[in-house]
Amino acid sequence: MKRILVTGGAGFIGSHLCERLLEQGHDVICMDNYFTGAKQNIKHLMDNHYFELVRHDVTHPYFVEVDEIYNLACPASPIHYQYNPIKTIKTSVMGAINMLGLAKRIKAKILQASTSEVYGDPLIHPQTEDYWGNVNPIGIRSCYDEGKRCAESLFLNYHRQNEVNIKIIRIFNTYGPRMNLNDGRVVSNFIVQALKGENITIFGNGTQTRSFQYVDDLIEGMLRMMNSRDDFHGPVNIGNPNEFSMLELAEEIKDLTGSKSKIIFEPLPEDDPTQRQPDITLAKKELNNWEPTVQLREGLSKTITYFDDLLGKINS
Ligand code: NAD
Ligand code: UDP
Prior knowledge:
This protein has about 325 residues and is α/β, with parallel strands linked by helices. The protein has a domain at about 5-175 and about 215-240 and about 280-295: NAD(P)-binding Rossmann-like Domain (Rossmann fold). About 40% of the residues lie in helices and about 15% in strands. The chain contains nine helices and 13 strands. It has helices at about 10-25, 80, 85-105, 140-160, 185-195, 215-225, 245-255, 280-285, 295-315, and strands at about 5, 25-30, 50-55, 70, 110-115, 165-170, 175, 200-205, 210, 215, 235-240, 245, 265. The strands form four sheets. The chain has a seven-stranded parallel β-sheet with strand order 3-2-1-4-5-6-11, sandwiched between helices. A two-stranded parallel sheet has the order 7-10. Helix 5 runs parallel beside helix 7 (about 245-255). The chain is globular, with a radius of gyration of 19 Å. The termini are far apart. Nicotinamide-adenine-dinucleotide binds next to helix 1 and strand 5.
């Protein structure tokens, strides 16, 4: 049994990670400031004696004795990370410094939840880890993209300078149950709109692509990365290589929900990447043949069931 700190543990991905770590018999400390996360996401874990919840902001130092740290604290949806961009940068950069300082002091292994956004609007396709990316450093997405790029640099530098045992994963668009109803990301937006019979809002002409990964596949990849060989630090892409346009996604969700919602087109946000697809060769090689096992229709069906129940509870 290990003692494990999960920052951002009350968020969408964090709550699934805490759940899996507890199932494996570990002692889990979940730290969150509830900016985009919620106690509701981890309510079902509260009775477990090996689960501890701490309200704390990762931009402030935090001291605890643990064996491993998963650093997830950071809003991930464009509308949320652009709400207070300075805070987003502080969360990524100061959060990384605080957690790396802690890892150095207590000799813990630390994993960073980085992102495919480090590739920006990529000029090579699919994206391999050795691609340096095409990020607008002063645009409206830069608070997130550059914050995460700086965090990757900090992780590597703490490793090189202080021998901290680091792991970096670059997560591609992930979806599933416990996304916030008002999260603003495309999968939850389309599902909620379809279930409510509201217009499905495609930004731009809908030809831009993303590769969607179901949350269970990501958690498996994350755990394998934390337990990978000592001299493998990443960054490693964790995503599902099956790529879809936003138009295809909207049609798929309409089909699965049987919704009569109309598809409408709204302006494309500034710097919205046109394409995104992970090359997962490195993950397969280093993470014991890891690859996604849940394909889009199956993952969407599970997510639709979740939101259908949630909306039912809200309306009853
Ligand atoms: P989320 O918004 O549901 O979770 C983020 C969590 O971090 C929330 O619980 C939030 O309250 C917490 N948080 C934010 N700022 C904090 C702070 N200053 N101190 C403490 N807690 C704070 O998003 P998610 O999708 O679960 O993302 C989790 C992590 O994975 C993020 O670091 C994100 O950048 C990364 N990621 C996610 C995706 C994806 O598609 N979901 C893709 C790439 C990277
Ligand atoms: N998008 C959309 N309608 C929405 C929300 C998002 O068409 O209601 C588009 C968005 O412009 C982007 C894609 O869906 O091209 C994925 O957006 P999301 O915010 O989920 O993730 P990210 O852009 O960070 O990959």
